[in-house]
């Protein structure tokens, strides 16, 4: 057999083997950058409304023999589990969202959240937090719930350990056009997400104090052993927006608006 044909067959065989074994999702040879820039000044991702992409949200997909179903919306999502991070192997390659992966940005991969989504990630060991923009799929390990960029992992101080126990909380931003129409119709109620904690007693106490201070009702919602303190309902979005900004200025910088 001619040498060129033999080489072509070998290359084809290697490609098929990579695809059947998971291809880019095999992380064994991933690594940190050899000469990374200073990422201490990289800002959190800035949550804003973005329509979910067509290319990155196939309803069902299969990787490494396991099937996954993408959520219709990330609104209200919260979880706890193990985070990992991915680096140089994927840097410069396309994400599942069709964008270019930049390990020095505040981004992440998740198996089932719609793309893009914004997620607040908290390292439960040191309480360090980061807000990332999810634009990729992974990590495809049963015991891990999110794959963080190098910059995000650096912020959470988990580069040396490789993994960390974290809590996740989606920061959901509604379509402003839909919100405006709902405001006119008066069919939606607004809540202000103030803070999340694993201690319900702490939030109950804080809720009473905030109700008295701002003259607004509150509620504490739970999901996966994480409790979220929200002020509301508030009927007018304009009033809710003003109170959100006031809360940010008065000691609750992570406050954001929810609509129902």
From TrEMBL:
| Superkingdom of source | Bacteria
| Membrane topology, from the record | Lipid-anchor
Q: Which UniProt keywords apply?
A: Cell membrane, Cell wall biogenesis/degradation, Lipoprotein, Lyase, Membrane, Palmitate, Signal
Q: What is its main location?
A: membrane
Q: Which Enzyme Commission number(s) are listed?
A: 4.2.2.-
- Single GO molecular function: lytic endotransglycosylase activity
> What SUPFAM superfamilies does this protein's entry cite?
Barwin-like endoglucanases, Sporulation related repeat
Start and end of every SPOR domain?
184-260
Is Signal among the key words of this record? yes
Q: Tell me where it resides.
A: Cell membrane
Q: What class of enzyme is it?
A: lyase
Q: Which GO terms describe its cellular component?
A: cell outer membrane; plasma membrane
A GO BP entry is: peptidoglycan metabolic process
The question of whether tRNA processing is a record keyword is answered with no
Note the NCBIfam families from the entry: rlpA
User: What does the sequence similarity comment in the record state about its family?
Assistant: Belongs to the RlpA family.
Protein's job: Lytic transglycosylase with a strong preference for naked glycan strands that lack stem peptides.
Put simply, this protein is called: Endolytic peptidoglycan transglycosylase RlpA
Q: Which organism is it from?
A: Shewanella pealeana (strain ATCC 700345 / ANG-SQ1)
